[in-house]
Every structure is written in C-alpha cells, then in structure tokens.
Amino acid sequence: MIEFKNVEKYYGDFHALKNINLTITKGEVVVVIGPSGSGKSTMLRCINALEEISTGHLLINNIDLASKDTNLNHVRKNLGMVFQHFNLYPHRTVLDNITLAPMKVLKKSKAEAEAKAEELLEKVGMLDKKDAYPSQLSGGQQQRIAIARSLAMEPDVMLFDEPTSALDPEMVGEVLEVMKNLAKEEGMTMVVVTHEMGFAREVANRVIFMAEGEILEDAETEMFYENP
Ligand code: ADP
Ligand code: ADP
C-alpha cells in the first residue's frame, strides 16, 4: 500500500531522509518514533505528496509519486492526514467542516454528505456538537472533529502527525481512544507519529525508530519492547 524504495530527501543541502526502505501493507498500524528533527514529519509529508522526494521511489497503491503521469490530487484523495493543529474552518459549524470537502471533491449531495458526517460524528462521540463552532470546543473535541473530517473523504490510509502533542494532558486519552477504535474496529491502515508509547504498545503492529533521517529500527511491536 505504501512503499519506499531507496528514498532520499534533501532540503537544499540538508539530508533529511537517508535511504528509506519501508513497506506498509493494508491494515497495518505503524507508529513512528524518534527525536525531534529526525525526519518523521518529512516522511509523512512525502507519503501525502506535500513534499517531493529527491531520489528513489515512493509508491502509494502501486502508483509512483515521482512519475510525471501521476495525478497527485488523485493520490491525496485516498490519504487522510491529521496534524498537531486541527485547522478547522473557524466560521463553519462542525457539520459543515466535515461535509465541505466530500461535497466539493467527491461531488456528494448535501444530504449524502450530512448522513455520512453524522455517522462519523457518532463514532468520534461528537454528534451532539454538530451545530457548534470550533471555538466552542476543547482541543480534544476539535481534534476528534478533525479526524472525522479526514475520514469523510473515505481514505485508504490515515496519517497522523503528533495528533495529541498540542493537547492538554486530560484530552489526550479521548483522541487516542478514537484512533484506537479506528485501528481495531475499522482495520484502518495508519501511520502515526507520536510520543505516546502506551498507544504504540497497545495498538501498533510495528514501531519504527528514526534518528537523523534514518530508520534505525523497524520491528513488530512485541519485538521492539523486548529489545530496548
Ligand atoms: P521530525 O518530524 O522528526 O521532528 P522533520 O521531518 O520535521 O522532523 O524535520 C527533519 C529535519 O528537516 C529538521 O532538521 C528540520 O529542520 C528539517 N526540515 C523540515 N522541513 C524543512 C523545510 N521545509 N526546509 C528545510 N528544512 C526542513
Ligand atoms: P512539526 O514538528 O509540527 O512538523 P515543524 O516546526 O517541524 O513542525 O515544521 C513546520 C513547518 O515548517 C513544515 O512545513 C516544515 O516543512 C517547515 N520547516 C521545518 N523546519 C524548517 C527549516 N529548517 N527550514 C524551513 N522550513 C522548515
């Protein structure tokens, strides 16, 4: 589903990703850990085609992102991304935040988009807030809405870049719970950059440890914790 083959990424002279080889298959939950600046975000942004790789190949559903014929918007449509900051539209209600893209990009009718949005709001425990505005919600609630908004595009893969890092500690649990359900109940393929080791241990199939742009360890979760 996601395949890095000898991928290098430079920002100018700075070598941000070094010979990355990685295959992530359908249904896997992969947690990426490592110190700040080790290239975790860069790796996610390359998957989402927000950054271009410098050399090598990166395939998403067997489509080579570097190929001239590839329509990146088409690839991006199948990838949901959740960031540290939720970036909800402040002047739109929760429901509108979730239905806008499906109506515009997937050409869903308003009724169809709203039915799907309500189903997702129910899953993230936020249906009662569908008419609220983002500023009326806590950070944890906003992040749950951001997750629902990504899911509304019906992605094959969800990418999470430190989804709980900007939250007050008491709100971390509710967001991790939504992510856990997504993994365990929906079988969603997920790549998660996080410092939440409890989540990694409980939910991930694999843990990848990065440092200075390299993958130093890529192991099944149990192995990872047995060999510290
Ligand atoms: P992490 O997510 O592990 O904290 P990042 O992928 O954000 O690491 O960054 C890896 C390194 O690449 C850092 O040293 C960062 O400063 C650098 N970097 C990230 N984005 C850019 C950019 N757009 N231009 C130049 N350097 C960048
Ligand atoms: P995060 O850790 O949340 O990913 P960062 O501060 O690493 O946030 O990056 C935020 C943005 O700044 C990204 O778009 C990244 O590409 C850019 N960026 C990060 N480091 C650099 C850098 N050294 N030079 C230029 N842009 C950078």
UniProtKB/TrEMBL annotation:
Organism: Enterococcus aquimarinus
Family: Belongs to the ABC transporter superfamily.
Full protein name: ABC transporter family protein
Record keywords, A-Z: ATP-binding, Coiled coil, Nucleotide-binding, Transport
Pfam families in the record: ABC_tran (PF00005)
Chain coiled-coil ranges: 103-130
SUPFAM superfamilies to which the protein is assigned, alphabetical: P-loop containing nucleoside triphosphate hydrolases
The ABC transporter domain, residue ranges: 2-228
GO MF annotation: an example: ATP hydrolysis activity
Highest taxon above the source species: Bacteria
